[in-house]
Amino acid sequence: MAGWLDGNFVSVIDGVAFGLLLFTIAVGLSLVFGMMDVLNLAHGTLYLVGAYVAYALSDGSLWGLLLALAAGALVGTMGGVALTFLTQPLARRGHLDQAVLTLGVTFIVADLLAAAFGGEVLPTDPPTFLRGTVDLLGHAYPVYRLMFIGVATGLATVVYLFFERSSLGALVRATVADRDMVRALGVDIRKVLYGVFAFGAALAAVGGVLGAPILGPGPGVDETVLVLSLVVVVVGGLGSVRGALAGALLIGQVQTLGVALLPEYAPFLLFGTMLAVLVVRPHGLVSPAVRT
Amino acid sequence: MSPFGPSVRRLLVTAVAVGLASAPFVLGPYTIGTLSRILVFALLAISVNLLTGLTGLPTLGQSAYFGVGAYTAAIVATRLTDIGMLQLLIAAGVSALVAVPTGWLAVRARGVVFLMLTLAIGEIAYSAAVNWKSLTNGTDGVSGIPPVVPLPGMPALELDGLVYFYVLAVFLVLFAAVSRLGSTPFALALRGIRDNERRMSAIGYPTRRYALTVYCGAGALAGVAGALWVSVQRFVSPGDAGFEIAALALLAVVIGGSGSMWGACAGAALVWLTRDYLGNLEAVAGRGPLLLGLFFVIAVYTLPRGLAGVRLPPKLTRKRTA
Fold it and tell me: Which of A97, A108, A268 faces B294 most closely, judged by CB atoms?
């Protein structure tokens, strides 16, 4: 086992990094669906927009990265607000309409991005000071990914503490659990809902900025990200921060180890994991019943 | 359907069938190729309609079974036989077989979770088509597919018009078969599941088994459509099993609305023509996806009545996810 771990050490750590990236993206999808009852199939598009922002603004310096992060967060927030306005009139018409609408948005934005940036996958380099590798227990490991793990862990901690420990987070969770009760307490829940949508969208776009050197911008990346996020959300359990984290870390490992060990069968491993989890826990790893 | 009496309906059906059958004598080869593709796509839309319109299970994963059928037919055609009927049967069988475990997983959920699961299944089928190189040739796809021989003893169909007749014949047989299903107790049970699943299971219907049965049937139908696609294109690539196909098929059904087969076919034709012709217009040079996206957005706001029959019961979905 120790030998196995040594041989796949880099893949395992890559899996952690990828899992944390998936969490950053998927938590917004999960909360928007869990709370607003809006199925946002344009979620992968928000990641893609963020990744293109990183490509356009990153000049290799720390300031370039920070500028890209700020711009990504801003664009993501605007995207979230726009999607709220677009989906709101359909709120009473059910999920199929939301699915069709947000699919339309993905087609439109993907086409505009392809027109602006071309049809190729654009390799996005990490900032110069984060290039190269470090020695990690005898293995050479890219600095950027290590930094990414640090930043994403911080982000995940902040999101987790906000939703699970702060009073505003308690309000958000209460809105998930019983919307009418919170409304009856005199809270303008529309503000809560819009805020969560904007926040989730901004996180996805920031994920795109940070993830660009890992999963770079290009046509089809939006789809890949959307599907991985949906799998994370289904495996983890809908509408919970902890579920998104558990699902993301699991899927991150399955993806990186699967590609490293059994490249031909990697897609089936993803499906197999989903199958196995849903057989044992039909509502996902963190089922709504045990959510605090 | 209701505004027409049975005799008017029979007349309409005959007129449409005669119109379709005489098309190769009046239209050029390019148009006939497009018409063949529309018929194949309409079969896929009928398959989606069985799930989404009839049973209330919104699927974004029928491209998986379409792709499985297409690759199966392509492999059978290049390595085994060019007999079309055998290709169709094997493709239907393999697709139904793949639908058993995937459907078993999907029908555990309803509403939006079902949509998520089918989307994931479709995407996994796509990445399998890309990555399983020993079988699928990866992104290069399978080419060199011989022209189809519909039945043993018949000549190989080299001309677009002849392939069109082959596709039309299979389409009409399957359209009639699925229409027959419409009034059976099985279809009524599926409608019951769509409208009130809890009541159906309370009066003793094993609703999940019904859902899985229709899922496998729809998978087989999508597989046949995939096999026909290969006969038309003589080529298959991962794109044929991709997300865009699944999204377009769902859009066709949503635009068609009300869970009607005619609606699904009309929606399929509309969607395909938009994609094929608008995308080729000089004024919009290559901006097909943009127009298609606008089409999605406009359709969802302006065609609410087209959606009436396929609306998900909101109570049910909220219960499962809250």
Answer: A108
Which residues numbered 40-99 in B keep a CB inside 8 Å of some CB on A? 52, 58, 60
pTM: 0.84
Residue A113: closest CA among A221, A197, A21: A221
CA distance B268 to B44: 9
pLDDT at A32: 84
Say which amino acid occupies A136.
L
3-state helix, strand, coil in chain A (%, to 5): 80, 5, 20
Instruction: Please report the pLDDT score of residue A252 as a whole number.
Output: 93
Record the tokens describing residue A194, joined without a space. Answer: 């819009």
Three-class DSSP category at A240? coil
Query: What average pLDDT does this structure show over B267-289?
Result: 75
Q: Which residue of B has its CA nearest to A269?
A: B124
B26: left (phi over 0), alpha (psi -120 to 50) or beta: alpha
CB within 8 Å: A110 and B322: no
> Which of A39, A83, A180, A227 has the most B C-beta neighbours within 10 Å, making it the best mutation to test the interface with B?
A227
Contact B293 A105 (CB under 8 A): yes
Pick from A37, A104, A226: CB nearest B300: A104
- Residues 6 or more apart whose CB falls under 8 angstroms from that of A1 comprise none
Cβ(B236)–Cβ(B142) under 8 Å?
yes
Average pLDDT over residues A282-286: 81
Report pLDDT digits (tens) over B94-126: 999 999 999 998 998 888 888 888 988 998 899
Local structure of residue B277 (DSSP, 8 states): I
Note whether B98 and B122 are within 8 A (CB).
Answer: no
Q: Residue B135: pLDDT above 70?
A: yes
Q: Distance from B131 to chain A by nearest Cα, in Å?
A: 5
For residues B42 and A211, give the distance between their C-alpha atoms in angstroms, rounded to a whole number: 39
User: What does the pLDDT look like over A231-280, one tens digit per residue?
Assistant: 999 899 887 888 899 999 999 999 888 888 887 787 788 888 888 888 88
Cα separation, B121 vs B106, in Å, equals: 9
Task: Tokens for B88, please give them.
Answer: 């169709």
The minimal CB distance from B58 to the residues A99, A107, A109 is found for: A99
Give which of A111, A228, A231, A265 to mutate to test B binding, by max B Cβ within 10 Å: A111
Interface ipTM:
0.80
Q: Is B41 within 8 Å of B249 (Cβ atoms)?
A: yes
Indicate which of A93, A96, A255 best probes the interface with B, i.e. most B CBs within 10 Å of its own CB: A96
Contacts of B311 in chain A (CB under 8 A): 93-94, 96-97
